[in-house]
Amino acid sequence: MEEVLVETALNDLVLGDTGSTIGQFLVANMNNESCRRLLHLSQSLRPSSHRALSLAAQIKTLEENNRQLQIHLSVAQGEVMLLSDEIGRLLEDKEDSSPDPDFARKPPASSSSVKLRQNKRPWESSKSED
Q1: Among 38, 54, 69, 125, which has the highest number of CB atoms less than 10 A from its own CB?
Q2: No. of H helices and E strands in the chain?
Q3: Is 80 a member of any domain?
Q4: Domain count across the chain
Q5: Region annotation Disordered: residue ranges (predicted)?
């Protein structure tokens, strides 16, 4: 009874063509004596053995993916820390360089151009028109 339930569960869990996956898994693990021997027997293995090896291959793939994700996460955390430090330094520099918050504000463009026109001397405007 147990074997039938396990077979059914494995049939439901292991999807698709597992032949190439099993072969790749066994070749990648040739340093293991059992994998080397199973590779030679792969054509004559029972379906349950195929499913078990397919699950082992999937576990190995997930372990590798997990390791890569941990590396990427570590790198991303380091970049976040660097950016956070840089933002902190920029904010400190901004506070140190302009103690008056209104100091860094630029006047609106329209008001400064009006002042320039108003400050022109009459003889300067007549020379530029000639």
Answers
A1: 54
A2: 6, 0
A3: yes
A4: 1
A5: 92-130
DSSP 8-class letter at 105:
P
CA angle 70, 73, 74 (to 5 degrees): 85
- What does the DSSP 8-state code read for residue 41? H
Identify which of 14, 89, 87 has the alpha carbon closest to the alpha carbon of residue 47.
14
- Cα 67 to chain centroid distance, Å, stands at 14
Q: At what angle do helices 2-13 and 47-97 cross, to 10 degrees?
A: 50
* Gyration radius from the chain CA atoms: 36
> 35, 26 in Cβ contact below 8 A?
yes
- Is 69 inside a domain boundary? yes
Q: Which residue range is the domain that position 50 belongs to?
A: 8-100
- pTM over cut 0.85: no
pLDDT in tens, 28-71: 988 999 988 998 888 888 888 888 888 888 899 999 999 999 99
